[in-house]
């Protein structure tokens, strides 16, 4: 189970971490796209500011150009009649400035924009957005504007550096890496706890099954030992044939009863135990039960009482044979623990407000200790481990509980007023 726990926790962590990494990758791609769009938008804003100043002012100060280059990592080149402005630049890109300017001019010429000729059809001519590749795998946005002036032609070329993705997203990437490591660690811890919580019912079921098998094996071992002993005695002492055959028959009946009880519980566990549901007349059922069980009580000098209300009990949905079976098991349990000269009472009342019918089996036996009450419905549980009654295996009350639950009811144990035990079965008046 521990190996399964580790494997499932690992699988859950890996699967969830993979999904997390895919989401982070998608987020990074989205961030790259947004960053690209932001850089492009930023360049357009700076370009519009430059061209507006270039078109409206006769001169552009070196201070303004230096500040713009330094602040925005740009190369700004202005020419008048083919003569560059006496401005050396304040920012040095990875690729030589002049190389970048020539690349921009070549692309402009390819678009039909010449820095040496004034526009023919308009006072200005501008290139579309251009992308330049430098000598060191560095990239740039570039645009050129040509203006027809009184003295000839003026042009402005703006080249904006595009930071590499790893550089622009370095902070985001580091943040996501730390977040991913923390998330995977948390996922590992959560998956371990979650898998452990999920496997808890499986482990409990496995342990319950193991205890059931061990207890059943123990209970079967005793009659088998008796059968083997009787068979051996039959070979050596044929004169005791009748007595030994009686012992063998009794032990076979005992084993048959045990196997039948185990099969019933196995059917309940497998959810294959079906009920023949119908409207059950509880007055008739309880009276028949009383009349059929009274002789067994009289043989033990026990008084069996039936306490019913003056008005008829309501019918309930259920399987009459199964209801009779569970009540007989409770009566048999009460008879086995009630000494002679005392009484057992069958009592039934309906509660219309709660929509239930309550049936109580009360005895005047020795009662059940408080420490044993939580376990009386456990399989193979016997409060008195040293008792000599070998015809009961601690399955009767387990079967009763299963039958009650199949009817969507409840069963509880309390002390009776006479010092014995009181089992209360509550069955719904309507189907749930």
Topology:
Layout: H1 2-56, H2 62-72, E1 74-80, E2 83-84, H3 97-110, E3 124-126, E4 130-133, E5 139-149, E6 152-162, H4 165-168, H5 170-236, H6 241-269, E7 278-280, H7 282-299, E8 303-307, E9 316-318, H8 320-336, E10 343-351, E11 356-363, H9 396-406, E12 410-415, E13 421-428
Parallel strand pairs: 8-10
Antiparallel strand pairs: 1-2, 1-6, 3-5, 4-5, 5-6, 7-9, 10-11, 11-13, 12-13
Helix pairs in contact: 1-5, 5-6, 6-9, 7-8, 8-9
Protein traits:
432 residues; five-stranded mixed β-sheet; Beta-Lactamase; single chain; Heat Shock Protein 90; rod-shaped; 9 helices; alpha+beta
Describe this structure in words.
The strands form 3 sheets. Strands 1, 2, 3, 4, 5 and 6 form a 6-stranded antiparallel sheet that branches. Helix 7 runs parallel beside helix 8 (320-336). A hairpin with a 2-residue loop joins strand 1 (74-80) and strand 2. The model is unreliable at 385-393 (pLDDT under 50). The protein is rod-shaped and about 140 Å long. With 432 residues, it is of the alpha+beta class. It has 2 domains: 2-170, Beta-Lactamase (2-Layer Sandwich); 278-428, Heat Shock Protein 90, CATH 3.30.565.10. It has 9 helices and 13 strands. The chain has helices at 2-56, 62-72, 97-110, 165-168, 170-236, 241-269, 282-299, 320-336, 396-406, and strands at residues 74-80, 83-84, 124-126, 130-133, 139-149, 152-162, 278-280, 303-307, 316-318, 343-351, 356-363, 410-415, 421-428.
């Amino acid at each position: 189970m521990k190996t399964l726990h580790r494997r499932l926790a690992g699988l859950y962590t890996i699967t969830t971490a993979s999904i997390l990494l895919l989401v982070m990758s998608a987020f990074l791609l989205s961030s790259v796209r947004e960053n690209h769009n932001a850089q492009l938008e930023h360049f357009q804003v700076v370009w519009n500011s430059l061209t507006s100043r270039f078109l409206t002012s006769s001169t552009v100060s070196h201070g303004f150009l230096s500040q713009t280059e330094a602040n925005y990592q740009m190369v700004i080149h202005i020419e008048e009649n083919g003569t560059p402005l006496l401005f050396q630049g304040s920012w040095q890109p990875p690729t030589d400035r002049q190389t970048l300017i020539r690349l921009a001019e070549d692309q402009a010429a390819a678009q039909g924009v010449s820095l040496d000729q004034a526009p023919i059809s308009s006072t200005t001519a501008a290139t579309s957005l251009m992308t330049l590749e430098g000598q060191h795998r560095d990239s740039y946005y570039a645009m050129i504007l040509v203006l027809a002036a009184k003295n000839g032609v003026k042009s402005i070329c703006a080249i904006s550096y595009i930071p590499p993705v790893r550089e622009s997203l370095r902070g985001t990437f580091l943040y996501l890496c730390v977040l991913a490591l923390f998330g995977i660690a948390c996922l590992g811890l959560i998956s371990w706890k979650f898998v452990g919580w999920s496997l808890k019912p499986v482990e409990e079921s496995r342990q319950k099954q193991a205890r059931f098998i061990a207890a059943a094996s123990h209970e079967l071992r005793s009659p088998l030992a008796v059968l083997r002993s009787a068979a051996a005695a039959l070979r050596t002492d044929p004169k005791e044939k009748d007595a030994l055959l009686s012992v063998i028959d009794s032990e076979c009946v005992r084993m048959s009863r045990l196997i039948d009880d185990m099969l019933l519980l196995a059917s309940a566990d497998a959810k294959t135990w079906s009920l023949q549901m119908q409207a059950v007349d509880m007055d008739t059922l309880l009276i028949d039960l009383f009349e059929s069980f009274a002789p067994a009580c009289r043989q033990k000098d026990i008084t069996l009482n039936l306490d019913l209300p003056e008005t008829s009990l309501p019918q309930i949905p259920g399987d009459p044979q199964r209801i009779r079976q569970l009540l007989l098991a409770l009566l048999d349990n009460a008879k086995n623990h009630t000494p002679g000269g005392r009484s057992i009472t069958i009592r039934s009342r309906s509660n219309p407000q709660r929509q239930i019918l309550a049936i109580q089996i009360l005895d005047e036996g020795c009662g059940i200790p408080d420490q044993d009450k939580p376990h009386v419905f456990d399989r193979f549980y016997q409060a008195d481990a040293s008792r000599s009654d070998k015809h009961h295996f601690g399955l009767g009350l387990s079967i009763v509980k299963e039958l009650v639950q199949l009817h969507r009811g409840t069963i509880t144990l309390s002390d009776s007023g006479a010092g014995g035990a009181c089992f209360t079965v509550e069955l719904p008046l309507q189907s749930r």
